[in-house]
Amino acid sequence: MIKALINRLRGKPAAPAKLERVVVPRDQHPISRRDISNAALKTLYRLKENGYQAFLVGGGVRDLLLDLHPKDFDVATSATPEQVKQVFGSQCMLIGRRFRLAHVRYGREIIEVATFRAHHTQAESENHARTSDEGMILRDNVWGSVEEDAERRDFTVNALYYNIEDFSVWDFAGGLADLEKRQLRLIGDPETRYREDPVRMLRAIRFAAKLEFDIEAGTAAPIRELGDLLDDISSHRLYDETQKLLSCGHAVRVLDLLHDYDLFRHLFLFAADSEESKRLLTLTAESTDERIAIGKSVNPAFFYAVLLWPALQKSYASLLDEDMPPVPALQQAGQRVISRQTQRTAITRMTAQTIREIWEMQPRLERPRPRQVDILLQQQRFRAAYDFLVLREEAGEDTDGWGEWWTHYQEADPGLRAELLRALESNGGSAGRKPRKRGPRKRKPASSQQP
Ligand code: ATP
Ligand code: MG
Predict the structure, then answer these.
(1) Side by side, which strands form the sheet with 109-115?
(2) Which ligand 1 atom is the nearest neighbour of the CA of 63?
(3) What is the SS3 assignment for 99?
(4) Are 235 and 345 in contact (CB under 8 A)?
(5) 13 class by beta-carbon count within 10 Å (0-12 exposed, 13-18 middle, 19+ buried)
(6) Whose CA is nearest to atom 28 of ligand 1?
(7) Fewer CB atoms inside 10 A, N or C side of the chain?
(8) Structure-derived torsion over alpha carbons of residues 96, 99, 100, 101, reported in degrees to the nearest 10
(9) Does the CA dihedral 215-217-218-224 come out positive or negative?
């Protein structure tokens, strides 16, 4: 109540004004059922047959209208989660507390089915919705109509509904016009919407990067001021979101935008400060985007190994200064840096382990004993550690040419390999090459970041 009053005094409505519905009939839009997955279609039809309204919504509709391949299909319905469960039985699982959802499973494909949600004030929905003193939505389970559902979606282009009843597209917020202008615009008052859910700032960056859209001026304006709000988001949610940012296939643009909007420092505790470490980050983003473009997987550990590398080196150097021997110093520095970052983005234990393995293999790859070479090559983490070494070398770090040596060794036939090992023995453990400074990229093709 008080919040609504304060908002009114500030000239901001507690909830946006009612939206107008524009219906675009089937023959005036390009979405065909052929482009929608069978699982999503079946879900929509089953809901409709059971007397509920059912729409495809979100990225699925947006991407089809942009002639892109949707990553997944989300369904919005008038059925409550319990009713969805009744319709789909054991095929359906109800999940989430903060945001209750139904997952309907078809083999390996899962369709997310969300009940229409409404805006709410604290007083009218004490048990189903909760907002913090700062205006952040803590629980969001007040059911509503499709219009109300549209109001509380984030961007206008994400609030387009494909109706299974007659295959029309419903636009409540001017999403079609914004698609045309290729711009991201929040529905309602941007600052209020970011305060409700600060992750929307990161979503703006991700969609802007992925769709190559502009962020509309009013939607962009508050972001630089409100970055601090991300500090209240759970580290698990931030980890998921950074994952999506780094693996959306446009990580180069994402990093630029995170810097432009001063959000980088709210996600990653350590900034790359030297030219080499900035370049290492850019090269990693480029190679990640290339991999995604050809349908390869990327491991989050690799990106984190790069992001935290400058901090690791600092921590390592200070432990060496305290006379700690190199091997434990590297291990301890790794633990320190990862545990500090984990307070911000909850890196899983398995990812943390992989990050440390990539780091701990660096000195071993840089100074291998000839007998160790083939053993290292067989190690599970070799591929990722080798990629990391090559990127460091390309970024201009002094690695004494070891990245290039390993490339050469892997390409060599058995005779040449034996020769390289003999040379290594007589060189007293030097790769015998100087690192190329920013030279042309010479990496084994189809290089893997998949440890
Ligand atoms: P993609 O799946 O391609 O990443 P998407 O737009 O489908 O993009 P999802 O995270 O799958 O994004 O969410 C589905 C839809 O749910 C969004 O399009 C949007 O309408 C709504 N939505 C998701 N997250 C939020 C949020 N934080 N605030 C408001 N609406 C949201
Ligand atoms: Mg989606």
Answers:
(1) 22-24, 169-171, 160-163, 54-57, 74-77, 109-115, 101-106, 92-95
(2) 3
(3) coil
(4) yes
(5) middle
(6) 154
(7) N
(8) -90
(9) positive
Checking if the pLDDT of 445 tops 50, the result is: no
Establish whether residue 200 lines the binding site of ligand 1, counting it when its CB lies within 6 angstroms of any ligand atom. Answer: yes
- Please give the positions annotated as active site: 72, 74, 154
Domains and CATH numbers, the chain: 2-181 (3.30.460.10), 187-267 (1.10.110.30), 276-426 (1.10.3090.10)
Q: How confident is the model at residue 442 (pLDDT cuts 50, 70, 90)?
A: very low
Confidence of residue 435 (pLDDT cuts 50, 70, 90): very low
In the predicted model, what is the mean pLDDT of residues 241-255? 96
User: Is residue 59 in contact with ligand 1, taking CB distance under 6 Å?
Assistant: yes
Angle, helices 382-394/349-366, rounded to nearest 10 degrees: 60
Query: Which residues make up the environment of ion ligand 2, defined by Cβ < 5 Å?
Result: 58-59, 72, 74
Percentage of residues of the chain with pLDDT beyond 70? 87
Q: Following DSSP, what letter does each residue of 119-157 receive, concatenated?
A: ---TGGGTTTEEE-TTS-EEEE--B--HHHHHHTSSBGG
| Nearest residue to 70 (alpha-carbon basis) of 61, 79, 57 | 61
Two tokens, residue 148: 């109300």
Contact assessment for residue 389 and residue 402, using Cβ atoms and an 8 Å cutoff: yes
Q: Report the predicted TM-score, pTM, of the whole model to 2 decimal places.
A: 0.88
Which residue, chain included where needed, has tokens 């090269």? 283
First-to-last C-alpha distance (Å) of the chain: 53
Distance, C-alpha 421 to centroid of its chain: 42
75 CA to centre of ligand 2 in angstroms? 9
Token couple for 111? 């369709």
